[in-house]
């Protein structure tokens, strides 16, 4: 995915992508919340700690690991953390809808990694073929990507079956369809059965939600924009470095989450590269973390049609483009 940029790596690792956004001196302490247990999907941020990119930008960053009981939106709105991962565009839009002054300042996944998984040879190879069939999804998906599937593919709520975040029911039922992450459940299923499941990445079928968006308060954006800029620029460096050589970040991921294995981490990185999760679309021209008004508008319009948002909602309040699209990590053209 980022191999085309290797010609820039030697110079990039020798010097920061941009001048530190904070004055040199005492480091500014920052707390950053993730949305789940430490994993490769958080790798760029762990890499920024491991490689000293946050410190080079004047920050002392503490990563507060998430988990099943974590409420990311509540954490950032209540000031428990300074920055928070939100898994999709829905988080920032929910804040705008409720009038809560929290905004997205970057999107480190250009493609949402959500997938629908089915068994090969069962006539459920495409999203169109899944219409009317039982599908196991979680509660959050009902008010997220499921709305997109209803709006575009005609899915209906009577298809929904409960999902307990285990692949065991899927493996036991050869007609089953379930949700998952492209970098996680398909590998678990293949490892357990030796059979590659059919994987449909929703982002490749019109689902244009960003993912791994970084939320912070409007107050921090207004009062300390230099802190926001420092965090985003160091994270950009971290993600570029992690996708080239994830070893330093993986050491810290293991420290926070000892149960994760090397093969799982390696597969996640491989799949993120394969599908262009971090680097595709707008990021190819604007740099890692890119966001655009057109992409936010497209997501909003889709969800208005799905009945989630009212047409008069000012979706521009959900995000700011002030800290992204700087093209810092782009290699020079031949």
SSE inventory with pairings:
Elements: H1 6-14, E1 28-33, H2 43-50, H3 53-56, E2 59-64, H4 72-77, E3 83-86, H5 89-98, E4 102-109, E5 114-118, H6 127-130, E6 135-137, H7 139-142, H8 145-153, E7 160-162, H9 168-172, E8 177-181, H10 185-193, E9 198-201, E10 211-217, H11 218-223, H12 225-244, H13 247-256, H14 262-275, H15 283-286, H16 293-305
Parallel strand pairs: 1-2, 1-3, 6-7
Antiparallel strand pairs: 3-10, 4-10, 5-8, 5-9
Helix pairs in contact: 2-12, 2-13
Question: Could you characterize what this model shows?
Answer:
The chain has 334 residues and is of the alpha/beta class. The chain folds into two domains: 3-110 and 209-318, D-Maltodextrin-Binding Protein, domain 2 (3-Layer(aba) Sandwich), CATH 3.40.190; 114-205, Osmoprotection protein (prox), domain 2 (D-Maltodextrin-Binding Protein, domain 2, 3-Layer(aba) Sandwich), CATH 3.40.190. The protein is 40% helix and 15% strand. It has 16 helices and ten strands. A five-stranded mixed sheet has the order 2-1-3-10-4, with helices on both faces. A three-stranded antiparallel sheet has the order 8-5-9, with no helix packed on it. A two-stranded parallel sheet has the order 6-7. Helix 2 (43-50) crosses helix 12 and helix 2 crosses helix 13 (247-256). The chain starts with 5 loop residues before the first helix and ends in a 29-residue tail after the last helix. The model is unreliable at 1-19 (pLDDT under 50).
